[in-house]
User: Fold these one by one.
Assistant:
Number 1:
Amino acid sequence: MTAVAAPSVASLVQSVDWLAIAPPTIAAVVALVVLVADLFLGERRKALLGWVSVAGLAAAALALLPLLDGDRSTFCLKTLKGEQPACSYTADHFTLVIQFIVLAGALLTALLSITGIKDAKNTPRELPEGEFWFLLLSSAAGAALLPASRDLATLVVALEVASLPAFALVGIKRDDRRSSEAALKFFLSSVTATAVTLLGVSFVYATTGTLHLTRIATALTHVDGQFQTLAQAGVALTLVGFAFKTAAAPFHFWVPDTYVGAPLPVAAYLSVIGKAVGFSGIILVTVVAFPSYADVWGPALAALAALTMTVGNVAALRQQATRAYSAVRLLAWSSVGQAGYLLVPIAAAAYSKDADKAIGSTVAYALMYAAVNLGAFAVAALVARTKPLNRISDYRGLYRSRPLAALVLGFFLLCLAGLPPGIIGLFAKVTVFSAAVDAGLGWLAVVMAVNVVIALYYYLQWTATLFRSAEGEQAVQRIPAPLTAAIGLTAVIGVVLSGAPQMVLRFASTGLF
């Protein structure tokens, strides 16, 4: 009998590419540092935690620079000679672009939060600083991990790591019934969506025998006829959790109440980072894992896109200027409408010969949307310091009291509407429209054009309000430096992107996968 040598310990240990996983790892490590430091710092020194968090997010974003020279992968399965390796973590161009959106968005959210936490101190709605920063950093770490995930298990774990802290952030206001209700609604609906997604993942695993996206793509081309229905159901159900994160209709019902109940910086975070997480997940599972089932997810996403943009824009159109929190509600419904536009190129990828170009349109639009929407929320946070009910009518005469803030907000709204001088908004919408036309989805392009016209009304109406005569005296306070920095950074990014829109598309769509 021939003895079989047992594998050595060294052969079972896999080396880790620490540089590739540095961005989410730095955010996670800083989160733990903040959590421990909170136990030992006195109340007067806890403001340092905010600046440590800002520094940590900046360091995580800077860790993307060494990764620009090429694709890197880690946590890979050993394969036979000549076989394509299956990895759980890949830092390619697509990953880096989405991680930049996530970490830069989280950094701007942190700047907004420093002011928000300071303003809430010694009030009934005081925010616990240590917990707040730990939750924000933890959520950002999960969000940065998701675009790099290349197997369904890691994707779902990253989705939940990004989501669970977000539930707590929404309900972090003390003794605030609206905040608690918003967190509960957000949590229950998200858990339901996640359960459906896990059911879909189990169906996909049952029919393919693997969780790695590239191997799923290969296995789905050889599914036995008796398992075709199970595979199709798995593909459809897997998309549900990510569609929920993007606030795609009919999974959007949590958005307005959650944005109103959450602290304003958290609402800004959800509007941008939550969407980046959802859309990167949808792109990975459709284009990378399920390309052979494009006839299933293509029509489904096209229908979702049309329904989402219509529901969002019509609901935004109905907002009353004098209603409490109408400005936040309008931004919430606007984000639902914008999600519909973002879904269009992903649906087009199912019908297009060049999926990279179609996905590049979504990524380019996401870059524009992230910058200008965070900027709009930053100006809303400024107005909320003197007008806590944040009604659209509260912005009347803003140009007279704060001319720069009014001009910046007007610019952001015009970008979202797709009108000059917001050239980047116009360019992004034309790019998305072209993706639909090139893929033969003429009906979807028509629906998008109608919705763009609807959106023009409420964006222009709000913009006009900024320059109307104010009723009564306008209270003016000194703008804190972090809030000024957040508004200034988003304005500069918006102007730079408007000056070189073609560069954005080239950066977003070159060699995504």
Note: Strands lie at 72-76, 87-91.
Number 2:
Amino acid sequence: MFDRPLPADIPLGPFQGQSIPVFSAKGKNAKLHARLTCTRLRSDGTVASEVPLNADTIGRMCSRCGLHGNWGRPDSGVGLFLRALGGIGLLYQLQQYTETDPDCTLDQKEVERAAEVLRTEPLAEEDDEHDDEDWEVRDAAGRLREEVVCTWRDAARSLHLAQTTVATFPWLADWARPKVALKEQYLETLRGLAALFVTPAGLLAAAAAASMEEPELPSGGSAFAAIGDSKEVSRRLRSMWGDWQNRARSSWGLPGDSLFAHDALHGIRQSRKGYAEARLAAGRLLASWEDEARRVASAADTGATVAVTVHLPEIQEDETHWQRRHERGLLADFDDWMIGVLLVHLTGTDWGHRQLTVRVPQLIADRLLSQSSLPHCELATATPEAAAAVDETSPLSPGVFDDTAVHQRRPLTADHLRLLRSIGTAEDELYIAFSTDGGTEVLHFPELERRASRGWRGVLIASSADLPAALIDPWSGELGKRPEDRDSWWPERIRDADDPVFGEKLGLNSGAQQAAWMVFGDEARQRERHLRLLAVARGVRDLRSLDAGYGHVGRSRGLPSAVWHGLLAPGSYLDLKPFEAPGRSGWKPGGSGIPLGVLADVQVYAANADPRFQGKGHSPFCSHTRERGVVADDDLLTVADLLDGKDFDWCSKCSGYAIRRLTDVQLAHYRAAHRLHDIARQLDPDRGGYDPGRFEQLAEQLRGLEKWDPNGEGRPYSEDARQWRRIVRELQSRGRPDSA
């Protein structure tokens, strides 16, 4: 093991001398820490500074921070470089699966004995005397085989990760070469041990089984009378054939790998008349299929071989269930037969680029080249192409992700994004990007990848992680601590328009509180992340552009649910009664005809807002839409559209839509309109609120609202401003004593 996560002799390439932020106690030789919360950092007299990345700085790094700390910005080149080295990155991988690794000790003789056991025929089921003992021995041998093969797979994965990282940072090549060579040698040793469990003849037999057509199956006769009528016999025997072929083609062709005959008699009582005869007949049928596979294999020409290139799939995390996460790609998805082919016939390897070469008999080559499942295989070229010159630059060098001046930024490419995905936490980020065709935009990572693949030329300005703490920390403090009572996250609706917090649930501040309070687990980290994402997303013109598409487990919402709540308010919070036309709508009294003003263009998001299409409209927060936030195919309306439309068919549970949270100017007009509407209601005898004793008080309130501008622009001659004054004057005249 290394004495420290970063050895002092490791080449730093273009990051030599790059400034990194550090925390330390006072003193010239105090240890350097990546984070202020490190438990090894004394809290008294902590100093924050920036130091150049060099051998001296590496020597002073706290061992824990050096291994797990995030030095530099999360998405900066130097930060990604150091993260690729630490943790379970390059330095860890270079120490794993070498000839000195104490965790990978396998006894050669023990492996040979286990392989010999599995190559022998298992005892017949009728031999009860030694049956249990035989199967215990075979079971132990099978477990050892699994251990050896899994160790080889893990070692191959480790070598692939190490070589990939070295290729990402070419200046590490000479330094890492002897360490990588040790891993390659040990991987070859493991392959030799694992290959003891595989026979070339068995692989040929499995390939032959895969090429066999379904034979003519008996559908009747006394031998299978215990199964049932001819239709049931045909069904069960076809199922037995399919099961046998799938098992045989995926195995190593060793004795005992195939299915047992009693699978065709599953669910039939052994006491049933003719059961023994049916079992023997099914066994003979299975034996005939295995004999035919061996005959085809023995007839194959094994002298002439074919070189085939195997392209391994990329490693990726598969989230098939929210409770289980496992890795796919490389060798993880291969069946035993494919693994056996690699173990026995491997002749050339390039684990870094996920390309292997095997030289196999024609029968195996035909199956490799014809299969539609992973991996992709093709004939190896007869004359290998000349190796390309080594590129000594790295896409992660300064100029793309680093804090260089904006005018020095380099255009983003697909290679940059591929590396950012493999090393960083890019998928969950929002980025501020600039291009000459789109100007300044807020884009999520999948959209950046899509554009880069089409030749888009743009630069990254910043990510949400780059926002200054001087803005985020005070904002977080203003929002206050999360209430202990979770019900208080969703306060009751205030209906009194004169209440100072009336309509607050529609505003930006309430949205920020929801984003900050809806956190679980590491609350401080999540709170900061939610607020950073919210701050960037607020500048997006159309929230549908934040739909990140489909992931491994269905649609990704692009943003955490808490951030969607920070951007949008449920439609049930919005009351448009003041803006409706006067009069009556059925048995309900109408509105006051107050102009929408700045509220007219407030965005409204809904699923299926068009009443011509079947189904109700739902909010992005509705359980019917799985509370998935805004997606690309949602409908975008405005508050003016809501006021004009009469045929909307909204969900009764969620009110059918959510609105973009109101700015301070919009919220102020919303409150003023409701106060004016409330005065109009009190001065209207038909609405039951007529009280002559309150005329003076209402008149004073009307004088305070007289000069209000619905557009918030101070333009007294706009149509909305004139309409507002007409309503105020009409109410003032209605409230005079001589008009009572």
Note: The two ends are 93 Å apart (CA to CA).
Number 3:
Amino acid sequence: MQNTPLTAGQTPGKPRNILFLMTDQQRTDTLGCYGNTTGHTPHLDALAARGTTFDRAYTPTAICTPARASLLTGLQPFEHGLLANYEWNSGHREELPDGSPTFSAALAEQGYRLGHVGKWHVGRHRGPEFYGFEGVHLPGALNVFDDPGYTRWLAVNGFPQFHISDPIYTTRADGSQGHLIAGVTDQPTEATFEAYLADQTIAKLREFAVGRSGTQTPGVDPAGGYPAEPFFLSCHIFGPHLPYLIPRQWYDLVDPSAVELPGSFAETFNGKPLVQQTYADYWSTDCFSVEQWKKITAVYWGYVAMIDHQIGRILAVLDELGLTDSTAVMFTADHGEFTGAHRLNDKGPAMYEDIYRIPAIVAVPGEAGRHNDDFVSLIDFTATFIDIAGGDVSGIRGSSLLPLAAGTTPAGWRQDILCEFHGHHFPYAQRMLRDRDFKYIANPEGLDEFYDLHADPDELNNVINVPAYRDNVRSLRRNMYRQLIARGDKFAQWLAFAGDIPESERIRPVTAVERFIT
């Protein structure tokens, strides 16, 4: 069905275009609208000031490919089956099953033109073009500095080729060189991979504003005040995923003395699953002093500032083209990052707020700036895309964010958030349920976790076995079990027998052999 210009029966001001901006591995505390006080994200903060900032937004899983596949399909990771990044795959599938639902197909049915720039990482071989987007497949988790398009762009513009100076590595326990964490690139800001992606996004915006025929008036259809050819355009920036490789201008932008390390820096791993200490050893996080971690964090924030600068360029062109009043602009990240929090780095088998809570901003024309504290999911963006396009959201696991952006919380909106994990570097199954007061994490390897988020917001004290919390643990565990059953997540079978789920509530599959028992 083709979208038509605004008619008397439609709601005035509802956007038709969608500009979706996404980063990789970005903590919420890097942004001013989430409380960062260094003032290094003016453009995203300005976007938040005219939109809705979601303070309780979560990824379905804190790893790139499964989270991005959930965004594309509107399904939970256990449903679509892309459970790991292919670079560290341990036997999981590497492409979405044929016939998987996608928001791109739903928008195409509504007459939308689809564009994608930047990181894809949904599967190994099938890129955005396979799913109906105009765009080039940039494979992998990190900036593709040897991509022919990027190197050609550098040459055409007379920019120096990519090169790293002053690299910072971790030091392993045996004294050998570990992971690359940060470094200075010998390029101006205009030559960075992020600038390259912004240039492509701007070019695609200009192309979409004119339309396929090349003769439409840029911006809007004068008959109805809506774009004559609605579009969805996404720009997925690879950063601020480590390693933080940025020009000196941004590397030294933030004074390390302005950095306050999170309280979880005091992590001891006492009473925690052993895998967390093992993962800290893998990343050699203890090889850096407190002052060094402050500098590393300052560089990370500088990387965020550089990305904010490029997003500012994109938003300026949206305004120049007269598209701001007909376009919903959204910003989020696929997941967060530890950056030393809990003495961990990157992301991994620990379901802390640092990596599961994500920034989320929705700016809808005509709506005032506000903060919302309802629990929302990355998959809600999927439903929002389809809702804006006028499509059917009934098959999407998420819910449209448009009512929340208008200041209304629909009846029955979720009161908690359920997340899952299947492993990174190695298979490792986890499920997490978090409400406004507590967090319960089911770890089949042996030690579950329970955190009182009011008394212990840094999640340092695992009180799973503290008698005073016994009833709270039981309540969240049973709530998780019921939600897993409702979803069809077979992790519930483990929870039924490993936990204290009442026998009257357990759903036990009958084996083929048991059918012969009388």
Note: The radius of gyration is 23 Å.
